[in-house]
C-alpha cells in the first residue's frame, strides 16, 4: 500500500480568519478556566477566613477573665472557703440586705474564688488575717455583663439640678428641666408595645368568633354545642385582653404629672448621684421615686452635670444579671476594683459545670494519650501491612480480596467502629470504659485503612530502579525494603498517617459507644484512666444551657485547631528530614 | 530499628489493656436532661469530699437504664439518671440480670416549653391545639383523617395566621418522648380519643415538625433567626435566654418556675435517679453522693442544681426520698410501674 504524500499544509491553515477565531476561542476558554479556578480558590479562602474569624473573635472573649478586688477575712486553718467568699462579700457591701439582695450579691462571685483560695492554701501561699486584699473571680453572668452581653448602660447627662428628699426607705427626686421626660417616654413606649400585643391577641379572638359563627349554621348537635362553647371562650378571652389593654392605655394617656409605675418588664433606670446609685420605681417628667441600690454619701441637692441618668434597655426580667448586681458592678468599675486578666485557668483546669472555671486541660491530655495509642497502633501495623501487600504478597484473588476490603473499610461510618470497640475491646477484652486506651484502639481501627492506602501509594511511587540497584549489589529483599524503599516512601507515608490522625482527632461518634463522651473532671495520668478528648469537650460545652459556655466552646475549638497544626508541623518536619530527590 | 521500637510500644499498650479493672470513682449514665444537674452535683461532691469526682455520661434515659440493668460488678454503672420513671420492662430486665435491689430517688421536675422569638406574636395554646397541629392524623368528631392543617389559625381561629413550623428534638430524645406523651397524647384525649387510641398518635412527618437535633441551644438560635417558627425545648434554656425567646402559654398557664413547680403548667415531667444497692460499699462514696444529690444545697429552693434550671420538689416529697436514701429502701416492683 502506498501512502499518499500528505499535501503541504495550506499556508492559510494557521492564519485564516477561521483559524484566528478558533485560536481566540481556545484562548478565551483557557482564560475562563483560570478564572473559575481563581473563583474556587477565592471562595474557599473566604470560607476559611470566615470560619477562623468567627472562632478567633469568640475566643478572644474567653481569653480574659474578670476579678473583683475586695478584702477577705481568712482564718489560719480555714476550710470552708465558700463561706469566706460570702462573708467577705457581705462585709464589703454591707448595704445589700434581704434574702434576694444577698443572693444576688453572692451571685456576682464564682465558686472559683473559693477554689483559688483553697489552692493557695495547699501551696502554702495563702495570706491570712482580718483584712487580706484578695482578687475574687466573678461569676459567669457578671463576666458576661462586663463584656456587654446584656446591653450597654446608656448615659444621659442633665443640665438641670436635682433635689433629693428622703421618704422612709425611698427617695423622692425632683429634677429641673423635665429631665425624666425621656425615661417616661421609654416606659410608655414599653407599655404601648404590651398593649399592642394584647390588642393583637384580642383581634385574633374576634377573628375566631367570626369564623366559628359562620360555620355554626352548617353543624348540628354535639358539634354545635362545642362550637358555641368555643365562641363563648373566645369572647371571654377577648374581653379580658381588651380590659388589660385599656388599663395600659389609661396609664399611657395619663397626664405627665401622675407618676408612672415602673415594672421589671420595662427598661431599668438608674440615677447616679452623690457617690451612690438609685433605681427609679415611679417616674413622671420631673419627679421620680427611687430606691437606693448603692447608698448615697449625702442627700444634698446637686447641680446640673453632677448627676446622670443611666438606662439599661433590656428589662430586668429578661436578663440574668439583676439591677442590684448591675449597680454593684458599676460602682466597682468606677472605683477601679474590677481587673481583667489573661485567662490562664483555661489551660490549668479541667471540665466544670460552671463556665467561668471550666478548662481544657483534662480533654487536652486525654486527646494526647488517645492519639499516642492510635499512632503507636495504626502506624506500625499500617506500614507493615502496606509493605507486605506491595513488596511481598503474591498477586492473586486473595490479595485482591484483601485490597478491596481495605478500601471498603476506609468508607465505613465511624460509629460502626465504636460499636465494634464496645463489643470487642470493652465487653470481650475488658478494656476499661472511657479510657484513652479504648478510645485509641477504636480510632486506630478507623485510621488503619487510610494509613495502609497512603503507605501503599507511597511505596509504589518509589522508582523500581532503586530496588534493582539495591538487589544488584546483593541486598536481600528485606534489606532492599527497609534500607532503601521505606526511607524513600516515608514522606508519603507520614502525610497519609497525618491525614488519618487528623480525622481521628476530631471524632466523637465512635467514642460515644465506649463512654468517652462524658463529664470527667480528673486529668488522666495514663492510658487506662478515664478521660475525654477535645471534640467531646466542644460537644459537651456546645450543649450546655449557660451562655458563657459559648465563648469557651470557641476557645476549645481554637485549641483543637492548634493541636492539629502542631501535629501537622511535626509531620512536615519529619517529612523534610526524610525527603530525598532523584 | 525504629519500627521495632514502635512495635514494642504497641505490644506494651496491648498488654496494659488486660490489666487494671478496679474502679474508685462512681459511674453515672443516663438522661441528657438530668445530665447538667447530675454533673453539677458530681462536681460539688468531688470538691467537698475526698472521693473522686464521679463520671457522668449522657446516654439518654433508655440507653442509661439498659447499661444500668446489664448486671452487678465494677464494669457496670452504679447510678442511672432518667427523665421518666423506670419502666416495668426495664425493672424486669434488671431483675433478670441480678440487679434486684434498686433505690429510687426523685429529684425534681423539668418543664417542656413551646416557645418562639421574643418579638413574635404570643401563643396561647391548649394541648388540643398542639395535638391538632402536630399529630399525623387528627380526629374531628369521630373521624380520623390525615392532618392537613397548614397554619395555626386553621387549628384554632384565635391563633396567629402563621404556618405550622415547630422545631423539636428527634425521636431518640427523652424530651420528645415526654412532649408526645404529655402534650400530644393528652391533647388527643381532650379531642375525644380514648386512652388506647391516644397513645397511638404519632407526630406528623410532612415537614410541620422539624427535627432539629438534641441540642437545645441550636433550637434557640434558630428561633431567634426565624421569628415565624416555634420550638420545643427544656425550661432551663428558656431561663437562660429569656431576653431572646419566650414561652407560649399552654392551657392558659405560662411556663414559669413557679407554675412548673406547682404542677399547674401541664407539660412537665419528673426527673429520677436509680442506685444499685449492691454497689454501695463496693464502689466508694455512693452513699455520700446520694446524700449530696438530695441535699438542701443542691436541690433545695436556692440550690445550685435549681439555679441550673431544675424545678425542685415540695419539701415533704423531698423528705420522703431523703428517708428512703437513709434507709436504703429498695424498689419492690409494686410501685405501679408502666
What does this entry show, briefly?
With 582 residues, chain A is α+β, with helices and mostly antiparallel strands.
Which helices and strands, and how do they pair?
The complex is a heterodimer of chains A (582) and B (338).
Chain A: H1 17-62, E1 64-74, H2 81-92, H3 99-106, H4 111-123, E2 129-137, H5 140-146, E3 154-157, E4 162-167, E5 170-175, H6 181-216, H7 221-253, E6 260-261, E7 268-273, E8 276-283, E9 287-294, E10 308-312, H8 323-334, E11 338-342, H9 345-348, H10 361-392, H11 397-409, H12 414-428, H13 436-460, H14 464-472, H15 477-505, H16 509-513, E12 518-519, H17 534-543, H18 549-578
Antiparallel strand pairs in A: 1-2, 1-11, 3-10, 4-5, 5-9, 6-8, 7-8, 7-10, 8-9
Helix pairs in contact in A: 1-18, 2-4, 6-7, 10-13, 10-15, 10-17, 12-13, 13-15, 14-15, 15-18, 17-18
Chain B: H1 2-18, E1 27-30, H2 35-48, E2 55-57, H3 61-68, E3 79-82, H4 88-96, E4 102-117, E5 124-125, H5 127-134, E6 137-140, E7 143-146, H6 152-155, E8 166-168, H7 174-190, H8 195-199, E9 209-211, H9 216-225, E10 230-234, H10 235-240, E11 245-247, E12 249-250, H11 257-261, E13 268-276, H12 286-293, H13 296-299, H14 304-307, H15 315-326
Account of the 3D structure:
The complex is a heterodimer of chains A (582) and B (338). Helix content of chain A is 58%, strand content 12%. By secondary structure, chain A is of the alpha+beta class. Chain A has four domains: 32-63; 64-150, no CATH class; 154-317, no CATH class; 355-578, MetI-like fold (Orthogonal Bundle). In chain A, a hairpin with a 2-residue loop joins strand 7 and strand 8 (276-283). Chain B is an alpha/beta fold. Chain B is built from 15 helices and 13 strands. In chain B, strands 1, 2, 3, 4, 8, 9, 10, 11 and 13 form a nine-stranded mixed beta sheet that branches. In chain B, strands 5-12 form a two-stranded parallel sheet. In chain B, strand 6 (137-140) and strand 7 (143-146) form a beta hairpin. In chain B, 49% of the residues are buried. Mean pLDDT of chain B is 86; it is low at 13-21. Chains A and B meet through helix 6, helix 7, helix 10, helix 13 and strand 12 of A and helix 1, helix 2, strand 2 and helix 10 of B.
